[in-house]
Write a structure and sequence with these properties.
single chain; 3 helices; 56% helix
């Protein structure tokens, strides 16, 4: 029986041998398999996987960038 670590490593080796433009197809196939076989989290928790991915300083910079650039309307663009 093949161990999961061995399968994981074989997949990584195979992925590294592919041209990078084929990686999207690999990701799409994994997404397809997940939709068939992986039980999804309830939709109310779908963003919880992103919790803690930004440091406090990164979050502050993001808030500042949004406040500076995203909340301004240029009426001449309409």
């Amino acid at each position: 029986m093949i161990q999961t670590d061995q399968i994981y490593n074989e997949i990584l080796v195979g992925l590294k041998q592919l041209p990078t433009n084929k990686w999207v197809e690999v990701r799409d196939f994994v997404d397809f398999l997940q939709t068939k076989y992986v039980r999804r989290q309830p939709t109310c928790n779908r963003f919880s996987r992103f919790a803690g991915t930004l440091s406090d300083s990164e979050a502050t910079k993001m808030k500042e960038a949004i406040a500076e650039g995203c909340e301004q309307i240029d009426a001449s663009e309409w």
